[in-house]
Task: structure prediction
Amino acid sequence: MLESDPRVPADVLTRYGERIMTAVGCSAHVASEVAAHLVDADLHGVYSHGIFRVIQYAERARDGHYDPAGEPVLTSAEGGATLVDGRRGLGIPAFRLATDTAIEAALRDGMAAVGVANVDHTGRLGAFAERAAQRGCLAVMFGGGARKTAPQVAPYGGARGILPTNPFAFGIPGGDRGPVTIDFATSSAAGGKIYAARESGRPLAEGLCIDARGRPTTNPDDYFNGGALLPMAGPKGYGMALMAELLGEAIMGDAMWGGHWICICVEMSRFRAPLAYRAAAEECLAELRNCPPAPGFSRVEIPGEREAQMRADRLVHGVPIPAATLDGMCALGTRLQVDVGELQAAHEIAGA
Result:
């Protein structure tokens, strides 16, 4: 995604997403939640998890990779821990339920851990970590366990994909500008970036991917033809991915499928009064912002603050979406017999 790409209003993208997800079999409220989550990712500049994902979601639903009608329920794991069973549906509503459950338990008991299992793609984990941080909690979220169905990432020193991208997210209350959040795949890039590059017709950055013979490549098609992503920071990303994969195995029950996650929340006020912590956090963050920038940088940024500023700008000026991606989205709507007139009009106006 480039800032020069056609800009489409967020509400137009959200309504389009709702129609697509309803057409593939989601209930109205799940379709609404999924669409809002994806557009929110675009607003924050996380294009790899944005509205273009409905193309992938529609393909996966068509091919039976998940059940669009599956909706999460709160239950217990084999060992008695609190667990959200996603019932083979999309993971976005399941992870939101797990986050809200963990927040309420942490506010009551000081800390809580809730598992998530039996889900397909969970969307942008950072959104859930931020949700917890806004309620005064430290949040730690990660998971794996889907290597049999999503062998996307080569282990360090390996030449083929074995592990999923197994992302981690952390959120913590911040200073005067709100929570500090980080969200990253343990691969060199989120899998969604490869899909996004293919949809937009653009090459990958160097160092992200290998082809089926283990050779470096910048062609996204090579990934889909037997290639793999590389681990983030070599052995470090590989080690984190392995930890997440074992965590996924621990949460997996006999009847579970797909990805498996844990959501840990700690109420920060059990350690320090909120106002005192906020003042201390702001002092720390201000020192970092005031650090002289290195050559090639304009300033030092705090994780989460640029995304919040971007969201405010894009709510006013629209979300940049590559023209080729918009064409693909319109084509999907036509195939599913969904009204795409509003999206096409926005596309034409933006491209004029």
